[in-house]
Amino acid sequence: MILQTLSTVLLLATAQTGTKDQGLSDAELLKRFHALNLRMADLGDLVRTKTTNASVKTFATALANDHRRMDRILLSIAEGMKITLGAPQWDREDIADNRAFADAFNKMKTLTPDKNYDKAFLDMMLEDHNQQLNILQTEKNRTSNGRLRDHMNDFLTMELKHRNRALELEGKRPPAAS
Asked: Is the pTM higher than 0.85?
């Protein structure tokens, strides 16, 4: 039931925050992925402290670190473009995907750390990363800013890596070759 609720929350966010036909502006992309980086870093920190599975703990730590690293680059790009991102609050009620994430995050805080906890986290990662991959694929070539486009390509690579690792941990994909 909890897994179904988390998936429903994330699917609702996907349905309500799809990209517009004309695409997202550079400022909208920067703000969206800035908030996403902060959300994923917070989630990675939470799961790292709660899970008892060493592989999930390692993944959660990498998730948080990767998103913090990508956010530092994104902030530099925004500064160069003279776009002020401010300090987003991912639990703002007026933004559907932020609200949905906050609901899912709060549920993760209350779950008992066991294999169902890990599955809820990994399912959440698959849903979220698939959504972000779709947006990145759609939007990455719409920007005229080369540095932002390059960063979005790097972001796409990172999101694929995270999604594939979540699949591996769920046993839906063979481990990557070393």
From this structure: no
